[in-house]
Amino acid sequence: MFIQIAPRAKVYVTDTDVEFIRAHALESFRSDQLSMEDADRAKRLADKAVFVRKKLDTHMQYALNRKIKFVANDRKK
After folding, report:
1. Domain 2-71 class in CATH
2. By the 8 A CB rule, do 5 and 50 touch?
3. How does pLDDT run across 32-46, given as a tens digit for each residue?
4. Can you give the pLDDT at residue 72?
5. Helix H segments across the chain?
6. Can you tell me whether residue 41 is helix, strand or coil?
7. What are the residue ranges spanned by the domains of the chain?
8. Is the pLDDT of residue 73 over 80?
9. What are the pLDDT digits (tens) for 47-72?
10. Please, are residues 20 and 45 in contact by the beta-carbon 8 Å criterion?
11. How far, in Å, CA of 55 to CA of 58, rounded?
């Protein structure tokens, strides 16, 4: 599945990433609340601009980027 992060910019995410996004879409969360696998997934999605992150003293805080849109499977051009 693709996620549109800007008018002409899309990133690809897997089905497990989409489930993770939908599970954490309503409120912000911290990296210490997640398992190691989910913390790595949140970091990777933040690198793709799906999540925004804020550096705290000892952890990272993540929140969903409100400007993203889910796009149906599309071919890359």
Report:
1. mainly alpha
2. yes
3. 999 999 999 999 999
4. 77
5. 15-23, 36-47
6. helix
7. 2-71
8. no
9. 999 999 999 999 999 999 999 998 87
10. yes
11. 8
**pLDDT tens string 13-39:** 999 999 999 999 999 999 999 999 999
Q: Please check whether residue 4 is in contact with residue 12, taking contact to mean a CB–CB distance below 8 angstroms.
A: no
Tokens representing residue 47 in the block: 């690198």
- Helices (runs of H) and strands (runs of E) counted in the chain: 2, 6
- Amino acid 76: pLDDT: 60
- pTM summary value: 0.84
| Residue 48 CB burial class (10 angstroms; 0-12, 13-18, ≥19) | middle
Question: Dihedral through CA 46, CA 49, CA 50, CA 53, nearest 10?
Answer: 40
Q: How far apart are CA 4 and CA 2, in angstroms?
A: 7
Q: Which helix (H) or strand (E) holds 71?
A: strand 69-71
